[in-house]
């Protein structure tokens, strides 16, 4: 391993459980880009999803979008700067606590703070929400959108998927796509 950062330290000796390409992605600052498909639920679910997208800094128009993800690391944080179509920014900061598999991450995106654990399945990184806060106040899990979020390797490419659903309405927003590393000299 070239250097220690928040991700490599959090996984420790189990960092090798991740697919080698995911390991490479998290051994240094990285950038991925490519097309993603964004879609919203129907009716009220779609209206809620578009509102959520605007609040998070995402486009509120369904369809194909270009996504660039800049992943930054240091000893204490993991940063994700997602940019849709060069105009819409969704930034998250992840702070590790403990070590895998008992440890967790705190994701801060605007006023929302999620406590996440990680499940490693077939070398992929799957996030699972275990608690949430909004503007510092604990929010019962049944009140926040359920999420399915992962990154894994498919045919040598990076597959990203993030979907959110709420009780009664169902899925409100989802984006997914296959991204490739961007090379900068």
UniProtKB/TrEMBL annotation:
Tell me which Pfam families the record gives. DUF4166
Q: Which InterPro entries match?
A: DUF4166 (IPR025311)
Residues forming the DUF4166 domain are 18-179
Q: Which domain of life is it from?
A: Bacteria
Q: Which protein, by its recorded name, is this?
A: DUF4166 domain-containing protein
Species of origin reads Rhodanobacter terrae
